[in-house]
Amino acid sequence: MTDIPNLEFDWSNTIMETLGIKIIEFSQERVTAAMPVTPKTHQPFGIMHGGVSVVLAETVASAGSYLFIDREKQRAVGLEINANHIRSVRQGTVKAVGVPVHVGRTSMVWDVRLYDEDQRLVCISRCTVAVIDKPDR
């Protein structure tokens, strides 16, 4: 389980647990997560899969969006994401730093940048998050 202040999510048996994603900074100004690069995250050529970068970026944007919504009545879900892969990573830890670019009532836009252990830019991503009403249950 990943402990995020003010959020009580059980992340066991999710993609975050599978990939080892940990939130290490969590505020309305910035959300930072770290993830190990292992064979589990590789594509067949032994480098981190681009889709894994996207999972990490959307995790940061979605988690951060929860700081701006009424969690009793709303959910934040990924609507659109793009990613530019700048550099490959074979091992170590990548860090994703997300900052909100736009915070609205029905959508949010996040800029998320991934860095390797030498602080070199690995990926730039922009994620649009939709704010939706929770379904009645």
Structural account:
The protein contains 2 helices and 6 strands. With 137 residues, the chain is an alpha+beta fold. A 6-stranded antiparallel sheet has the order 1-2-4-5-6-3. It has a single domain, classed as Thiol Ester Dehydrase, Chain A.
Residue share in helices?
A: 10-25%
**CATH topology label:** Thiol Ester Dehydrase, Chain A
- Given the C-alpha coordinates, what overall shape results? globular
The strands making up the biggest β-sheet line up spatially as 1-2-4-5-6-3
Number of domains: 1
Beta fraction of the residues? 35-45%
Low-confidence stretches: none
* CA gyration radius, whole angstroms: 15 Å
What is the CATH architecture descriptor?
A: Roll
- What is the N-to-C order of secondary-structure elements (H for helix, E for strand)? HEEHEEEE
In terms of structural class, how would the helical and strand content be classed?
alpha+beta
Give the CATH H-level superfamily: Hotdog Thioesterase
> Helix segment count?
2
The number of strands is 6
Distance between the termini: 25 Å
Main sheet specs: 6 strands, antiparallel
Mean of residue pLDDT? 93
Q: What top-tier CATH class fits best?
A: Alpha Beta
